[in-house]
Amino acid sequence: MAMAASAASDGEKLSLYRQALSLYRGDFLPKLSMEPWVMPVSAYYHQAFLDTAVSALALLEQEGAWEESASLCANALRIEPYSESLYQHLMRCRIALGDRDGAVRAYEEM
Questions:
Q1: In contact, 33 and 82? CB cutoff 8 Å
Q2: Residue 30 class from Cβ within 10 Å (0-12 exposed, 13-18 middle, 19+ buried)?
Q3: Residues 83, 76 contacting (CB under 8 angstroms)
Q4: C-beta of residue 52 within 8 angstroms of C-beta of residue 18
Q5: Quick one: pLDDT at residue 37?
Q6: CA 48 to CA 28: how far, in whole Å?
Q7: Burial 95-110 (b: 16+ CB within 10 A, else e)
């Protein structure tokens, strides 16, 4: 996120966001998730992933890249299924793509 914040253009930011999002595979050391030293590290990376996803979605939506936005939302919701913000983005994408039924399904899942 820090590198993207200092990027010169939205295109460069989006490229950095895509790289960062591709690196995240889920919670940090899930088998040790109850260890006191793992919890804050895991929470930090999880939140960084969500913040990056939402920032990338804003740029993708500005560009009208609705398919990529919908795909990013679906992937992010597999990692964080309780994010209202991600569901809002997904519904917006589905509506922009003319998929009213998909928007309704996203609403019902939320």
A1: no
A2: exposed
A3: yes
A4: no
A5: 92
A6: 12
A7: eeeebeebbeebeeee
Give 35-55 pLDDT, tens digit per residue: 899 899 999 999 999 999 999
Q: From CA 91, how far away is CA 71, in angstroms rounded?
A: 12
Which residue matches tokens 């039924």? 101
Do residues 59 and 13 lie in contact, with contact meaning Cβ atoms separated by under 8 Å? Answer: yes
For residue 11, pLDDT over 90 is answered with: no
Whether the CB-CB separation of 5 and 24 falls below 8 Å is answered with: no
Q: Scanning the structure block, which residue is given the tokens 């889920």?
A: 26
